[in-house]
Specification:
The protein contains three helices and seven strands. It has about 140 residues and is α/β, with parallel strands linked by helices. The chain has a single domain, classed as Roll (Nuclear Transport Factor 2, Chain: A). Strands 1, 2, 3, 4, 5, 6 and 7 form a seven-stranded mixed sheet that branches.
Length: about 140
């Protein structure tokens, strides 16, 4: 895929994801999500969709904020901020309604117009520790 083809797929995917629309259609049937911090993998279009949806709407009431998108020949990387409120159990920590604001990055492989792999650089352990800490602000970046 050319840089422009990759950018077209990624912009459409991100538009659907951020607009609460059908982003699943941009995932390959055998897509793989890897949480880089733990090495945990999630396989398949529906399972990856469910993971993303759960993080955004069930475990947290969250909305990612896109900071940047960089595209190459069949690859893309986003830098974003995960901003939301904990509404469900996360890594053994019960929901307390804490507000979270955590920077993260995801690297994507794109082929034949579909995302085939996502490698999420998301600070799961830091987020869990902060949520377990009670009333302390759960933010790795300053709020404005």
């Amino acid at each position: 895929m050319t840089d422009d083809d990759t950018r077209t797929v990624m912009e459409a995917y991100l538009g659907a994801l951020l607009g609460n629309a059908d982003f699943e259609r941009f995932l390959a049937p055998d897509v793989v999500w890897t949480t880089m911090e733990t090495g945990q993998e999630t396989h398949g279009r529906h399972a990856v969709r469910d993971l993303i949806t759960s993080l955004h709407t069930q475990v947290f009431d969250a909305r990612p904020e896109l900071v940047s998108l960089v595209c190459g020949d069949g690859t893309a990387t986003i830098e974003a901020v995960f901003d939301g409120r904990q509404t469900g159990e996360f890594a053994g920590v019960p929901a307390r309604g804490a507000h979270v604001r955590i920077p993260y990055a995801v690297c994507y492989d794109v082929a034949d117009g579909l995302i085939t792999a996502l490698r999420a650089y998301f600070p799961m352990a830091a987020l869990r520790d902060r949520l377990a800490g009670g009333d302390r602000p759960v933010s790795a970046i300053p709020t404005t």
